[in-house]
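User: tokens in, sequence out, please.
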């Protein structure tokens, strides 16, 4: 069954750029950032004051069916994105059941619930005043909550997984769904990633790690000085081409290649060899020549180490084809959404392929001699190739690369 072709028939997104895929893609295409001023009352000495986050008002407006008594925001985000993806795919009750799986990753799980309850626990210890803890904390915090709620919402009774591999969580989830479907484990899958991590405790932890930019995220720019934290959810409906055709669905694109590797080295420092092997595996799986890939949506965190390492990896993989290749990072637009990043970026890559436009890298100022190339910047750039690649590289030395092919090839 390994010759099964896997297509995307629906996509949904909830991001700091707004609710919906169109809001995310339009912002990415136009280089319009969802970053805003952010100050926490509980962090009196906060140094970094910008993030790409979803406000309480935006969440309330989009998640009209949310169950806050039982669901953390991380689950609500995923359900908003899943509803859009399922609607676009045109799925109904008859299309779920045992042949539909759910694979939705997250890095932190219910970060807001965890943060609130730890704060109450701490205050109770310090003041001696009893604090009422949330009795539903465990089911709200658990990392698989979003995947399970999606399964219950739609009656999807096939395989259910939750990858929690830091910044590769969503890309590995999509890749696993692709591999399981090619192997015959299911005919369709709701897959992607979700993260609701812009809360005081998590934000402070990233701040003291000294990897957040105090002003702006500038991937591949000589003056880059760190990443910008983000959050949101991205969900795709994947189906075998046969299943999609049987119900008259229109594929948006095809997933043609997936590669994932481990550096087995430093926990935090990226290794260009691991990233290169990930991309090479995806290219080999897709059966394409590197020159056939027109756009790379880079992991591009705007840290000094990541951007240098990823560039070295791309040069090793693409060789002469790297010159003229359209490369950009969209993290200045939606932030680094950690466990949701790969899903948001796969959706942008999907829309990029459909439009034939590579979105720009925001805030690029000057070429870094150590990197030696300019990403797409200023405005979107046209490309004509039928394939696009997206990368996700995570702490822990986990690498994942996905290649999408144009629906026109089907």
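Assistant: Sequence out:
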């Amino acid at each position: 069954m390994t010759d099964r072709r896997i297509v995307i028939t629906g996509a949904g997104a909830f991001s700091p750029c707004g609710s919906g895929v169109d809001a995310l893609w339009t912002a990415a295409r136009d280089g319009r950032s969802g970053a805003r001023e952010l100050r926490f009352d509980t962090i009196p000495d906060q140094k970094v004051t910008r993030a790409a986050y979803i406000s309480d008002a935006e969440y309330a407006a989009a998640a009209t069916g949310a169950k806050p008594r039982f669901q953390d925001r991380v689950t609500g985000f995923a359900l908003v994105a899943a509803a859009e993806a399922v609607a676009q795919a045109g799925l109904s009750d008859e299309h779920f059941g045992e042949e539909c799986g759910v694979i939705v990753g997250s890095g932190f799980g219910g970060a807001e619930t965890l943060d609130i309850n730890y704060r109450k626990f701490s205050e109770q210890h310090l003041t001696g005043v009893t604090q009422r803890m949330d009795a539903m904390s465990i089911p709200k915090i658990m990392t698989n909550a979003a995947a399970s709620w999606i399964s219950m919402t739609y009656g999807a009774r096939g395989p259910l997984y939750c990858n929690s591999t830091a910044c590769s969580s969503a890309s590995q989830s999509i890749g696993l769904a692709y591999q399981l479907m090619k192997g015959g484990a299911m005919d369709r899958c709701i897959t992607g990633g979700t993260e609701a991590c812009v809360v005081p405790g998590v934000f402070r932890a990233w701040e003291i790690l000294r990897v957040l930019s105090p002003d702006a995220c500038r991937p591949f720019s000589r003056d880059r000085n760190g990443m910008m934290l983000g959050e949101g959810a991205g969900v795709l409906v994947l189906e075998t081409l046969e299943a999609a055709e049987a119900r008259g669905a229109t594929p948006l694109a095809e997933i043609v290649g997936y590669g994932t590797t481990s550096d087995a080295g430093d926990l935090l420092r990226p290794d260009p060899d691991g990233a290169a092997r990930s991309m090479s595996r995806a290219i080999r799986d897709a059966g394409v020549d590197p020159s056939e890939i027109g756009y790379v949506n880079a992991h591009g965190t705007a840290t000094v180490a990541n951007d240098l390492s990823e560039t070295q990896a791309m040069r090793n993989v693409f060789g002469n084809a790297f010159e003229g290749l359209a490369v950009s990072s969209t993290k200045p637009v939606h932030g680094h959404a950690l466990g949701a990043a790969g899903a948001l970026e796969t959706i942008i890559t999907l829309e990029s392929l459909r439009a034939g436009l590579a979105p720009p890298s925001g805030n690029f100022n000057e070429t870094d001699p150590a990197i030696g190339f300019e990403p797409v910047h200023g405005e979107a750039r046209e490309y004509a190739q039928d394939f696009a690649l997206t990368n996700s590289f995570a702490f822990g030395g986990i690498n994942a690369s996905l290649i999408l092919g144009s629906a026109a090839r089907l």
